[in-house]
Write a structure and sequence with these properties.
The structure holds two protein chains of two kinds. Chain A is α+β, with helices and mostly antiparallel strands. Helices cover 44% and strands 16% of the residues of chain A. Classes of the chains: A alpha+beta, B alpha+beta.
Chain lengths: 408, 207
């Protein structure tokens, strides 16, 4: 017995009551946020306030900003579902990984990338490709100081591999029907600066090279974020509620009266079925760094309600500015994502991403099989693979029970 | 594998015992080879000197959560349909009951001495093989006494399949012999006998 439910049931009930109260107290804040949202009609005032936080000693603003002029959209504007392109080519990439484990016989990590191509409007068989990469040499497994790399590094390398695979396949398919849409699972804004990421500079370079290749194909790149927790718009509404002399790092540390709300809560109330929000960029050092490399690489995003009716299902869609500046490209992306999210019945998620994930995922059974294969190869090379005592005893205790039977 | 063999392959063995086996194939490959009551064979010796002979008694199409969600969508477009049938490995399982075996030139209508191994190729029996196997009727008893199969329907389907292996001039007599054999085996259960006979009753123009 691992979890004694009789001991946790009281806590689950208390948790339910706590969440209920939290929701009640949030409803007042949400009403205030909606009021500010609908009042945010003065684009010039918003631009002026963004200029203020960008060109002063204030560094703590991490909220939304309108797109640069002349591409800005009204923050409270709503985009209706656009007409569907007759034909299009959608390429989705996703990845999964096996982390390095000191308790098994050999140290390695594995990244498996799945790429799926869907020919919209053409009765063609979709294409699927997987690319597993086994990393086992010291140069791959150690950081700059000779320590074993951590899981964050593996995650980041997986993200970069996803983007590189997406770029390669999109490049190969550049003669296919347009629009050409490249879909990445998750945000396009990656944080490479953490000290825990090994060889972060190289990882960042590889990522930016992939972005450049995608840019060169003329593809509409997007990062699809399901159920996002972002607060870009909430931070902007808070910023706009401050008087000029109140705009300082201290006041921007939180979202004031709106603290605790997320953008999804606003857009679940505002966006009807199929509608999208305005395009916005995020004011952050990462995005500034993307912009510094190329103005085309700065990341914008919009929210979209991908539910065809009833309860809203809000997703955030990240796009680089090279696509965000083209209204026709955004319309095509908006329409194609709605179509993709309608394929799976009650589950509103892009079909192409579901399939890319299915291609990429490495199950625990497959991981065990891979470990067996590695053990066999080690024996073939006169090595003696042995899992740690900790791992072996864990499997003993978790093993299947057998009944005692009398034999006749 | 030759084109002919590919055409006759029903699937590969997933699990097996001496009484029968299940074989699997990809969803996109289901066709007239996968027919209830068809005679199939599978090697039970490495040198292909012996084959188990069986009858297909169930064909199951597996699902998964994604397929269940797609069913809920109002429209399924052609690309998704192709993707599900061609790309996704949703297997079809075909269940087979063993009714005999061949060993060299001998045909035995009893359970085979050993089961086929995993991944052995299961093939449709040729017209000649069906013809020679069904010249005796001992396998009727195996089918009728099998509890896990729809035995009456299966036997009737097998007899109808076998009839087409006979030249037109012998077909009517073959069906009459089958009927007589069934009358012997089911004399204690006239309702059942009447039902099976109705299922295999030859058309009046098959004489």
């Amino acid at each position: 017995m691992a979890l004694e439910f009789n001991k946790v049931i009281d806590q689950v009930q208390r948790m339910g009551r706590y969440l209920g109260k939290l929701s009640l107290s949030q409803s007042d804040r949400l009403a205030a946020a909606l009021e500010r949202f609908y009042a945010a009609t003065d684009l010039d005032a918003i631009h002026a306030r963004i200029e203020l936080v960008r060109n002063s000693s204030i560094s703590g603003y991490r909220g939304a900003a309108p797109l640069p002029k002349p591409y800005s959209e009204f923050i409270c504007g709503i985009g209706e579902p656009p007409p569907m392109p007759e034909r299009a080519t959608l390429i989705a990439a996703d990845g999964s990984q096996i982390y390095p484990d000191h308790h098994i016989a050999a140290l390695y990590y594995l990244i498996n990338i799945g790429v799926y191509t869907y020919h919209h409007g053409q009765p063609r068989l979709p294409e699927q490709v997987t690319a597993p990469e086994l990393a086992y040499s010291d140069s791959k497994l150690e950081d700059e100081d000779g320590r074993t790399i951590n899981n964050q590094t593996v995650n980041m390398r997986r993200s970069v591999e996803e983007m590189r695979s997406l770029a390669r396949h999109t490049w190969d398919l550049r003669e296919e029907a347009r629009p050409l849409v490249a879909i990445h699972d998750g945000t396009l804004l990656k944080f490479f600066g953490g000290i825990e990421i090994a060889y972060a500079k190289q990882v960042e370079r590889d990522y930016m090279d992939a972005l450049q290749q995608l840019h060169d194909t003329g593809a509409i790149l997007c990062g699809y974020v399901d159920n996002p927790r972002s607060t870009y718009l909430i931070s902007l509404l808070h910023l706009m509620s401050l008087a000029d002399d109140e705009v300082n790092d201290l006041n921007l540390k939180t979202n004031g009266e709106l603290e605790g709300l997320t953008d999804v809560q606003i857009f679940a109330r505002v966006l009807g079925p199929g509608q999208r929000s305005a395009l916005m960029t995020q004011n952050s050092p990462q995005n500034a760094e993307y912009h510094r490399r190329s103005a085309d690489f700065e990341i914008a995003s919009f929210y979209v309600n991908v539910a065809p009716a009833g309860r809203a299902a809000i997703a955030r869609v990240d796009v680089p500015l090279w696509a965000a500046r083209e209204p026709a490209a955004i319309d095509a992306l908006h329409a194609l994502l709605l179509h993709q999210c309608s394929i799976q019945g009650r589950r509103h998620y892009p079909y192409a991403l579901t399939r890319a994930d299915e291609l990429a995922v490495v199950s625990s059974a497959e991981r065990d099989q891979l470990n067996q294969l590695i053990n066999v190869e080690m024996r073939n090379n006169k090595l003696h693979p042995e899992a740690s005592n900790k791992l072996q005893t864990k499997y003993l205790a978790r093993g299947e029970r057998r009944q005692h039977r009398l034999r006749g | 594998m030759s084109v002919q063999e590919e055409r006759e392959m029903v699937g590969r063995v997933l699990r097996a015992s001496t009484t029968g086996f299940d074989c699997g194939t990809r969803g996109s490959r289901i066709d007239e080879r996968h027919t209830f009551g068809s005679f199939v064979k599978v090697p039970i010796a490495d040198d292909f000197s012996a084959f188990a002979i069986g009858l297909i008694y169930a064909i199951r199409i597996e699902d998964d959560p994604l397929a269940r969600e797609l069913v809920m969508a109002s429209i399924i477009d052609n690309s998704v349909l192709l993707d599900q049938r061609e790309n996704r490995m949703v297997p079809i399982e075909i269940a087979v009951i063993n009714v005999g075996y061949t060993s060299g030139a001998d045909v035995v209508q009893a359970l085979p001495p050993r089961p086929p191994l995993s991944l052995s190729e299961v093939q449709l029996c040729s017209t000649d093989e069906i013809y020679y196997f069904t010249r005796r009727f001992d396998y009727f008893r195996v089918v009728l006494s099998a509890s896990e199969v729809p035995s009456d329907e299966l036997l009737a389907a097998a007899v109808r399949t076998a009839a087409w292996a006979y030249p037109e001039s012998e077909r009517y007599n073959f069906l009459v012999h089958c009927g007589r054999q069934l009358a012997n085996l089911l004399s204690h259960d006239l309702k059942r006998l009447s039902r099976v006979l109705a299922l295999i009753k030859p058309d009046t123009n098959v004489q």
